Fold each of these.
Amino acid sequence: MTRMRKQARRFVLAAGLLVAPALAMAADQGAKGQAKSAGQKPPAAAAQESPMNVEQLNDNIAQHSGKQVSVAGEIEEWLDARSFVLESGGLFNDEIAVIVPPNAKGLDAQRLREDADIVVSGTVRSVPLVELERELGWDLDPELEVEFEGTKHFLVADRITRQRD
């Protein structure tokens, strides 16, 4: 191959690397526009409907505080009849305390065993445990208070469903 052809091929490759992201962005904007005009949700919104795992939640916990989320994971340990630890199988930052108020919908939480794969939909709360106890009318056992000591974030469940494989 001649030197001129090699340079031309490099130029075309470099131009393609620069243009491809712009084309992808334009295609995404077009898909969003078509979805809106058809009354459908754009692809990004549809993807957000699938549950995140606990690690993803904890990595951005501040942005989710006070908001409704759906989180997939496994019951690692029941703490009492109304609370358990949900984990996602990662090495770090993969656990959150889940509080199940009496009005939670879906499966009877007490019937779920440890290691059950579930999806918890609820509100992320970043409040002191005392405030959460007061709001939910929940009087924690002193041993459980010790267990929750230092916990800054909770997921207050509205609905619990079994996760489908």
Amino acid sequence: MPIAFPRQPPPPHHSHSHTSTSSLHSYPSSIDDDSDASSSEASDDTEAEMQAMIQEEWEESLRQMEVVLSIIIIPTFAKWYGRKFAYFAFARYQQIGSFSRTFFGL
């Protein structure tokens, strides 16, 4: 099941109190402290969202590893070990005979 990533919000538009004929945005200055505070809050929010997204991806990869382990690796190992034990038990049965106490080494 794919992870639905949150959509990125559009960048905030800063309205400047001074009039300018230029259509270019100005760089943030140290005079405009309000925009710096809002940008730090926005960066905290995006950092929290990024951490949540990373955590969600990690949990999804763990679920996928669990599925691979339970569907492929464990049954394959159990099949191999079961056959190995069956060959051992049959060879022991051919040597000793019926399933008596000596069969189990008692």
Amino acid sequence: MTAFAASSASLDGPAQLLETPDGRRLAYSEGQKNGRLIADPKEVAVLLRRYATLRSQTLSPKDSRGLLERMRGAL
């Protein structure tokens, strides 16, 4: 994610994305008092797109290190 981004694709909470040996895609979404297995392909597709967006927002390891070093130097 770029430094100080206003929003993130993952703000709705954690989700596990799964693929079975036969290629079926599932998701598991968990909250504080509940969890839900998601098997509907349309709902799983939404979560897969969010994951792709999150990956596109993520800094590379080199850029992450540079950001942390700059933040440490600013303290």
